[in-house]
Amino acid sequence: MSLLIKNGRVITATDDYFADVFVEGDTIKQIGKELAVKADHTIDAAGKLVIPGGIDPHTHMDMPFGGTTSSDDFDTGTVAAAFGGTTTIIDFAIQQKGRSTLEGLDTWHKKAEGKATIDYAFHMIVTDMPDERLPEMRRLADDGVTSYKLFMAYPGVLYVDDGTLYRAFRQAGENGTRISMHAENGIVIDEIVKAAVRDKKLSPMWHAKTRPTRMEAEGVHRAIAIAEVAQVPLYIVHLSSADALEQVKLGRMRGVDVQAETCPQYLFLDESMYLKDGYDGFEGAKWVMTPALREKWNQDVLWQGLKMHHLHAVATDHCPFCFNGNWKPGDKTPERPGKELGRESFTKIPNGAPGVENRMALMYHGGVVEGRISLNRFVELTSTSAAKTFGLFPKKGTIAVGSDADIVIFDPNRTETISVKNDRTHHMRADFSAYEGFTVKGYPDTVISRGRVIVDKGSKKTSGGGRFVKRARAGELLR
Ligand code: URP
Ligand code: ZN
Ligand code: ZN
After folding, report:
1. Which has the closest alpha carbon to 177: 385, 474, 478?
2. How many whole angstroms from 182 Cα to the centroid of ligand 2?
3. Confidence class of residue 39 from pLDDT cuts 50, 70 and 90?
4. Contact yes or no for 452/463 (Cβ under 8 A)
5. Given pLDDT bands bounded at 50, 70 and 90, which one contains residue 457?
6. Are 34 and 74 in contact (CB under 8 A)?
7. Nearest residue to 248 via CA among 267, 261, 264
């Protein structure tokens, strides 16, 4: 099958020009002015932007967490991603404590295989790493899993101690791979949480009040120091505050190879969401995520960090739970309970929110339309940078001859109001939108994954067909 995209304005992280793009099979074969080629299908992209498919390097599909499982699986979640202009996700496989990481990877392959509509890769969440397991990390890298996520947060669940961090960091560095870090001092936060619970401070707002930005900054500082000594490239996930960003800047000034992502929720939402229906209301549970939403002034600092290249990518940390999960009192086999698990205490609210579908439109609107970042930087932050950092470039993350034909035809003039009720903006399996009522200018019209048109003018064309992508090691190219 072949496809000709005519008359579009091609935008990459570095270029901006008018051209036709000719795709044959999975791959971009020619780019040029008025290409004289015959194609099975032709799309007229006049007046549209032709950009690389979005890459979201941080999603949690079908993830057991917080006493339930995230509500999108690799079917619904990747269809929603496609509608939003994302053509590759990097999700997280989880090692069960005391078990093999390879077994964990196998479990996640089974969850995704045959279900995903867009391409996917995995980071490996490491929950323990005794010496005898260290060789597994090389096997994972050989199998295309070239980054590991470790947690300083969630004691008793995903948390690992500094010794484990150091051992895993050393091994990852020796293997030429990268560490992703959830950087927050979970031990201290747990003490603050216990005190709040003792004082009967149990509503969703207390999720934010018990997680000071200083504890995020401390985690970032510690992760950078350990990575520096262990000599491994580091990537801080879901950075949420000015305090934490300051530590990234300091580390980079010292010459440490540390990058960081932030997420739309920290750029567009703030801690006032927890007070939607008052101090003791429960609606704020929709935005209980970790790190928590911050005071509003942090948003400007994060946008500035994106513009000035102190932050490197925008991911979603898509980890949806319904506000009213399909669980009712008395159900024997609750299927994916949701936020209601924490009605009595914020400590029981499953952490995470939906967003994989909203990232590209929000970043275009808040970034480009509102004048905070350039069009090239928008592409870099939503696609190219993650491709380079996580071993997908130049196969993915750009529009170039030989690259996968992962392409979004983006209408810069289409206006949409994001809403759970808008069937053009909400395909995620969540009974609310984190960005309810946000109006955006600019929206993906046609989404192409390896030459297949999967969304055309806002309608789904096909499901399935997504493939696992084996990623290259840090600093290596994927061809
Ligand atoms: O609240 C969040 N972020 N849930 C997903 C797990 C994580 O920490 O990334
Ligand atoms: Zn995390
Ligand atoms: Zn996450």
Report:
1. 474
2. 5
3. very high
4. no
5. confident
6. no
7. 261
DSSP string, 262-289: E-HHHHH--GGGGGTT-TT-SGGGGG--
Using a cut of 0.85, tell me whether the model's pTM lies above it: yes
> Which H or E run includes 119?
strand 119-125
Both tokens assigned to 322: 């319904």
pLDDT, average across residues 24-33 = 98
Q: Measure 216 CA to ligand 1 centroid, in angstroms.
A: 14
Q: Residue 304 is which amino acid?
A: Q
pLDDT tens digit sequence for 210-226: 999 999 999 999 999 99
For helices 242-253 and 298-307, give the axis angle rounded to 10 degrees: 30
Tokens at 26, concatenated: 């999975």
Q: Mean pLDDT over residues 374-378, rounded?
A: 98
> Ligand 1: does its nearest atom lie under 6 Å from the Cβ of 75?
no
Q: Any idea of the CA torsion for 172, 173, 176, 182, to the nearest 10 degrees?
A: 50
Q: What is the pLDDT of residues 101-117, one digit of tens each?
A: 999 999 999 999 999 99
What confidence score (pLDDT) does residue 328 get? 55
> Would the CB of 182 count as within 6 Å of ligand 1?
yes
Q: What is the pLDDT of residue 330?
A: 58
| Helix extents (H) in 175-291 | 186-198, 205-209, 213-230, 242-253, 264-268
CA-based end-to-end distance of the chain:
21
State which amino acid sits at residue 66.
G
Mode of pairing for the β-strands spanning 2-11 and 16-24: antiparallel
Q: Say if residues 88 and 357 touch (Cβ distance below 8 Å).
A: no
Mean predicted lDDT score pLDDT of the chain: 96
Q: Please indicate whether residue 289, judged by its CB atom, sits closer than 6 Å to ligand 1.
A: yes
pLDDT the model gives residue 225? 98
Residues 243 and 213: their CA atoms lie apart, in Å, by 6
